[in-house]
Structure formats: structure tokens, C-alpha cells
Specification:
Blueprint: E1 2-9, E2 17-23, E3 26-33, E4 38-45, E5 52-73, E6 78-96
Antiparallel strand pairs: 1-4, 1-5, 2-3, 2-5, 5-6
Amino acid sequence: MERVTFAIRWDEEEPCQLVYIVDNGVVKATTVQSRKGLLVVRYDVEAAASHQLEWSLLFLRETRSNLEAIYQRDGGDRRSLARVTTALNHWSSGGAA
């Protein structure tokens, strides 16, 4: 097994809610609340050469700026999966690690 840290950060101090994160087709978390400008989820996954991730972040009736999703496996190097300058109401995206 590998230990994954998945994080999303943004500029505003208002919180967001992670609706889901999926790693290689397996739901790893749902309905996670964030702190100010940062959401962090840690979970275990089966070892694999690569991981395909999908996520959805919710912040209804609000805008978030400079969103970035970051992936780290077993305490190794952090890797940026996706970035967006501005999002309104939600951000759903994915990336490979």
C-alpha cells in the first residue's frame, strides 16, 4: 500500500467542500470540509505505476481564485495535478500522477 496526500489550495480564506476524490476508479473520500484556503485528504491506495485522479470541489454562490491540486505519494515529491485561475461555484477536474 501507498499513502497519498491530496491537497487543494486557493487564495480566499473562505472554506470549500470536497464532494469526492477518485483514485484509479476507487472513491477515496466524499464530503470533506476544508480549512481557510486549504483542503487536505490522506488515504491509502494499492501501489501502481500511475494514478488517475478525479475530484470535485464545491463553493456555491462564490468564486475561488488560483486553485491548485497537489498530489504526494509516500512522502515523496509534491506534484501539481491541475490549476485554474478562477472558478465560480465549483471546480471539477482530474490529473495523472
